[in-house]
Amino acid sequence: MKTILTSTLFIFTLSAYSQNFIAFQKESGPESNWVKVYNEGLTGYLDETGEEIIPPVYEEIGRFGECCSNMALVRKNGLYGLVDTYGNVIVEAQYEMIGRQDEYKPGWILVKREGLYGFIDCSGEEIVKPVYTEIQMEGNTLKVN
């Protein structure tokens, strides 16, 4: 009985330690070498030399490359925009929602402003002004209302 209890305890301890190693895996992307900083509840980034890349003015900063390559979705005052890996604001935080590039048409990103939908590209240009209450994709055709 003592042997079974000791073996069980050993296996449990070993599995608990192995789970801790998984939790410390390093993420990829430019922000993996940066230091996330906070000031009064807002988030920013410093690079490995301590230079401020993105000032701590955002409620949230997404992962780089998820929306556009070399860009991250940011939230400020409840609205979304885009910044690049140099900290440049590409799209001011003015949208209620910013989708992902290429979901509807190559190079286009769905956005929502004041309850209406439109499209921008990764340079921040409005391709289709947000004037539609609904946008759907049917095959290769965009259907708008």
Structure summary:
The chain contains 1 helix and 13 strands; from the N terminus they run H-E-E-E-E-E-E-E-E-E-E-E-E-E. It is an alpha+beta fold and 145 residues long.
Helix and strand arrangement:
Blueprint: H1 2-23, E1 35-39, E2 42-46, E3 52-58, E4 60-61, E5 71-76, E6 79-84, E7 89-95, E8 97-98, E9 109-113, E10 116-120, E11 126-132, E12 135-138, E13 141-144
Antiparallel strand pairs: 1-2, 2-3, 4-5, 5-6, 6-7, 8-9, 9-10, 10-11, 12-13
What does this molecule look like?
The protein is of the alpha+beta class and 145 residues long. It has a single domain (30-144), classed as Lipocalin (Beta Barrel). It contains one helix and 13 strands. The chain has one helix at 2-23; strands spanning 35-39, 42-46, 52-58, 60-61, 71-76, 79-84, 89-95, 97-98, 109-113, 116-120, 126-132, 135-138, 141-144. It has a four-stranded antiparallel beta sheet, with no helix packed on it. The longest helix is centred in the N-terminal third of the chain and has 22 residues, at 2-23. Residues 1-26 have low confidence and may be disordered.
